[in-house]
Amino acid sequence: MKKKNRLQLDDNGKLKHFLTIEGLNRQMLIDILDTAESFTSVTEQNIKKVPLLRGKTIVNLFFEASTRTRTTFELAAKRLSADVLNINIQASATAKGETLLDMLRNFEAMHCDMFVVRHADSGAAHFIAQHAAPHISVINAGDGQHAHPTQAMLDMFTIRREKGEFHRLNVAIVGDIRHSRVARSQIHALSMLGVEDIRIIAPKTLIPTEPDTFGVHVYHDLREGLRDVDVVIMLRLQKERMSGGSLPSEHEYFQLYGLTEEKLALAKPDVIVMHPGPVNRGVEIDSAVADGPRSVILQQVSHGIAVRMAVMSMAMQSHLRDAPGGQR
Amino acid sequence: MIGIYTGGVWIAQQLHQQLAIKAPLGTLDISFYRDDFTRVGMNPQVKPSSLPLSIDDRHIILVDDVLYTGRTIRAAMNELFDYGRPASIILAVLVERDGRELPIQPDAVGQHISLQAGEQIKLQGPAPLTLSLRRV
């Protein structure tokens, strides 16, 4: 934890890399949410851009397919007036190591300022942050089963906008918690922001092996777990898990763990339903709920841009030269 | 009428009320348009800008507390033009002090002040609004 902290924060305690929620503190998360809030007005401008990162170059290094995350990172960078390179690399397990470092050196030689990294291996973003030149910031856009911190922060932003405060909330995360980097980052962020009742709801095979270390309440029955919750976060059921034998059929999963209006009625009347996307309609969530009045799934997408603008501009600040402030 | 955070908004609220302007008051946070982001970084307490009406073809009164170097006003005008094309902009400030670094002049001024090098004047608020002078 200490080591992660040292890597993510500079000598002044400012964000340099954004790799995981772990090792950050509550105030840092609140600063990210507040900064994101201020970026929401940019979308009201005729010209939806601010000149903050003019002249900076941001490289989206995507070793794993992604549409939503990559496009919202790209839009966020462009709304900050940065130049963006999108690099899609088909990850090949054998071609990593030296090849990856060579690639980093090349981008550094092109005077790039930030890498946004998505990779199927846990720890890939940390590895890149450790080996990148000192003037480069690294943002983790999802690494293996480890972390997806910008997704967690946009979820926190959505919850704060809808509910105002964190500490009185009951939040349920439903689905494949064990393999989900999103759930892992969400749980860290929720507990850091003071949510007292965090529930994870899943069949035994999809619960992490040591859930107690997360400080969460485990439920195997969806109806029981949904009782009186304020926020339900549904996770995408990765279809590849089906073939692995850890799950029954899609149909049976939907019967037991799919969110329907009838089951949602057990939650608080003003419950909000979230999903990081992409949604498997009829597997983990019924279309009537995904498109229904309690769903904030599309708001999450919009908020993703503001939150990523906040994280990128905050991380870019750590490279600034020291200069006198003074009155203006 | 549009006030610039933070002091300019306080002054604009007073003026807006006293002049009984019907159009709603706009507020502008110029943090993302500052020319010294790469030198001093960002203030974490940035407020979202809020312009309740389209500014296209409207006459704008831009309000700030202290006019000093002119850089804040430069940033504010850049931001305004990302919202639309106003018919005109005039500048009203509570205090105008010496030390301009850009060719920007106010149209309405509460008080002209000459300060020594190293002196700062700052508006404290929101209630009561007081001007304080300090040496740095």
- Assess the beta-strand content of chain A as a share of residues: 5-15%
The strands making up the biggest β-sheet of chain A line up spatially as: 7-6-5-8-9
The CATH superfamily of the largest domain in chain A is known as Aspartate/ornithine carbamoyltransferase
Q: What order do the strands of the largest sheet of chain B run in, or round the barrel if closed?
A: 2-1-3-4-5
How many separate helices of chain A? Answer: 13
Mean pLDDT of chain A: 90
The helicity of chain B comes to: 10-25%
Please state the overall shape of chain A, judged from the principal axes of the Cα atoms: globular
Mind describing the biggest β-sheet of chain B? 5 strands, parallel
What is the CATH C-level name of the largest domain in chain A?
Alpha Beta
Radius of gyration of chain B: 15 Å
Helix and strand composition category of chain B: alpha/beta
Number of strands of chain A: 9
Number of domains of chain A: 2
Kindly report the oligomeric state of this protein: heterodimer
Query: Nearest-angstrom radius of gyration of chain A?
Result: 20 Å
The 3D shape of chain B can be described as globular
Q: What structural category characterises the helix and strand content of chain A?
A: alpha/beta
Number of helices of chain B: 3
User: How far is it from the N-terminal to the C-terminal residue of chain A, by CA?
Assistant: 40 Å
Describe the overall structure.
The complex is a heterodimer of chains A (328) and B (136). Chain A has 13 helices and nine strands. Chain A is an alpha/beta fold and 328 residues long. The longest helix of chain A is centred in the C-terminal third of the chain and has 21 residues, at 297-317. Mean pLDDT of chain A is 90; it is low at 321-328. By secondary structure, chain B is an alpha/beta fold. Chain B has one domain: Rossmann fold, CATH 3.40.50.2020. In chain B, 21% of the residues lie in helices and 32% in strands. Chain B has helices at residues 7-18, 37-40, 71-83; strands at residues 2-4, 26-28, 59-67, 88-97, 108-113, 119-124, 130-135. In chain B, the strands form two sheets. In chain B, strands 2-1-3-4-5 form a five-stranded parallel β-sheet. A two-stranded antiparallel ribbon of chain B has the order 6-7. At the A-B interface, α2 and α13 of A face α2 and α3 of B.
